[in-house]
Design goal:
heterodimer; A: alpha/beta; Rossmann fold; five-stranded parallel beta sheet; about 40% helix; globular; B: alpha/beta
Chain lengths: ~150, ~425
């Protein structure tokens, strides 16, 4: 049984990807992170198409909003309107604090919206909270039969 | 219609006798539209104008229709009209001019009428009224009318120019504000990277490289984190100017409570005591007002003296508005610096002595002034400080809520 939780991280900023890696490594929950940098890749992976046909299904998606090619809003909409994907917990993790972005994300079905903190300590603490909540507190949706 | 055929050059009892205007060496060309149904009278007028030094090109009309057509065809410099035109009155020319949106001076030329009528005509918009037995006045009157028109045109042009310049300046200000806001906003991202990674470096390599490296990394971290607070303060300063005030009835007790909640840690660490109560409901933006109270209280805590900070918040009426006082027992401010503390980036201490960017009070000043109030400080060095600010009464409150405001204010006043 694979105990490590699978996280799909979608962020076009490699520095933030590393930061999230670092933060998650401090969590008591072992995690395996897959990172992609745009929305097209993210959907391809989730739909297990093309080069991602063998990819494991993530337990959690941490999704930035402003991405090249296809932005996080479009990814969120497509995931949450797809019957085979919409159960997947999707956390929006974005620098945007705009009320419009927050409201719209929840409207589209985001499981929660978190603004990227400006300072390092808070950033680490927030990422670890995400791990603690989703892997230590909440129940994840059971994996569907293929 | 009086015939002025025998036209005595009598001195009018009303006007001082005027010599015919000295004919200037150069004749001034003048396009005249004459509204007159008596050709003899018309000739007299034209003759007088020529005597007065004008090179006259003229058009003579009798009916309103002819007048209207002539206006556009001839583009006259001045209109001379007889007051009595049989079916209509010369003064009605003014209505036609208004309809056509033309501003051409009108001088009524007519036989004797009462003073009242003459004054009435001028009140209605005629430039002047010349009697047919004082026609020698006419050239001077025409000159004056033309001069007035020129001056009024110049004044209008100057006003337009001024308005244009003012709008240009306003636009320039808006552009600068926008730039400052966008720049501060966009700087946050790369800054976040620098701050986070310098701290990670400190964490990962602190003590593992040499002492010099530790020092360098520490300076980098301090610089980055200071830049972050600076950008946040700049954004707050910018927002204090950008956002509309959106004032509503704001209960100051609630506002102070929220501010104190945000300062919980600082209050606990310093053992500060904050006294307040019975504060009124005022017309203000609650978020911005909270920012002001929070900043003043935070300063009072930060700049404390040997004793734990004691802060008193009180209020007095100020005409229709309110005068708030936030006083403390801290290190105080020398009177010669009382103005400086409100200037952006102005600080009175080094960063080693007290942290801060020097923007907090500048933001408070901006907020208070946008609410129509004033903020200042009364203090002596070593003897605490009292920051005072006024919040005027709301400009135009609907009757119901104004009554509610007064009631709450009366109930809350000490």
């Amino acid at each position: 049984m694979n105990l490590a939780r699978e996280i799909l991280l979608v962020d076009d900023n490699p520095a933030d990807i590393d930061l999230t890696h670092d933060a998650l490594s401090r969590s008591r929950f072992p995690t395996h992170i897959r990172a992609v940098q745009d929305g097209v890749e993210a959907l391809a992976l989730l739909q297990r198409s093309g080069k991602y046909s063998d990819a494991s299904v993530p337990d959690l998606v941490i999704l930035d909003l402003n991405l090249p090619r296809k932005d996080g809003r479009a990814v969120l909409r497509e995931v949450k309107s797809n019957p085979s994907l919409r159960r997947m917990p999707v956390i929006i993790f974005s620098t945007s604090r705009a009320g419009r972005d927050i409201g719209h994300s929840y409207e589209l079905g985001a499981n929660s919206y978190i603004s990227k903190p400006g300072n390092l300590q808070d950033y680490i603490s927030v990422i670890m909270s995400i791990g603690d909540f989703w892997f230590g507190c909440a129940q994840l949706p059971p994996q569907e039969e293929p | 219609m009086t015939h002025a055929a025998s036209h005595p050059r009598a001195e009018s009892t009303r006007c001082p006798r005027e010599q015919p205007a000295a004919v200037p060496a150069e004749r001034v060309s003048l396009r005249v539209l004459l509204v007159e149904d008596n050709s003899a009278d018309a000739e007299l007028v034209l003759r007088e104008l020529r005597r007065g030094g004008f090179e006259v090109s003229r058009s003579i009309v009798q009916t309103p229709e002819q007048f209207r057509n002539s206006l556009w065809r001839e583009r006259p410099d001045v209109i001379l009209a007889d007051y009595n035109l049989g079916q209509w009155r010369g003064i009605e020319v003014l209505n036609i001019l208004r309809e056509e949106h033309l501003e051409i001076p009108l001088i009524l030329v007519s036989g004797a009428v009462g003073d009242v009528t003459a004054v009435e005509c001028i009140k209605q918009g005629a430039t002047d009224y010349v009697l047919k037995d004082s026609l020698t006045r006419l050239p001077t009157s025409v000159r004056r009318a033309l001069k007035e028109k020129e001056l009024s045109h110049e004044r209008r042009e100057a006003q337009k120019e001024l308005a244009r310049k003012v709008e240009e300046l306003a636009q320039s200000n808006r552009d600068l504000e926008q730039f400052a806001y966008v720049a501060s906003h966009d700087l946050q991202e790369p800054l976040r990277m620098v701050a986070a990674y310098t701290q990670l470096l400190a964490e990962r390599y602190g003590g593992k490289l040499d002492k010099q490296a530790d020092k360098y990394i520490q300076y980098a971290v301090e610089g980055a984190t200071r830049m972050q607070t600076l950008i946040q303060d700049l954004l707050a300063f910018s927002r204090a100017g950008r956002e509309g005030v959106a004032a509503g009835p704001t209960n100051c007790n609630g506002v102070v409570e929220s501010a104190l909640k945000n300062l919980e840690a600082a209050i606990k660490d310093s053992g500060a005591v904050v006294n307040y109560g019975g504060l009124p409901t005022v017309a203000a933006n609650p978020g911005q007002l909270q920012h002001v109270f929070q900043n003043l209280i935070a300063n009072a805590i930060k700049f404390h003296g040997a004793e734990p900070p004691v802060i008193d918040i009180s209020v007095d009426r100020d005409g229709e508005g309110w005068l708030f006082s936030v006083s403390d027992n801290g290190i105080g401010i020398a009177p010669e610096h009382a103005q400086d503390v409100f200037v952006v980036f102005q600080r009175l201490h080094t960063r080693e002595e007290y942290p801060g960017n020097g923007i907090g009070l500048a933001i408070c000043k901006r907020i208070i002034e946008r609410h129509g109030g004033h903020i200042w400080v009364e203090s002596q060095e070593g003897a605490g400080a009292t920051f005072k600010f006024t919040i005027p009464a709301a400009a135009a409150e609907p009757a119901a809520s104004a009554a509610a405001l007064t009631l709450t204010a009366a109930a809350g006043a000490r």
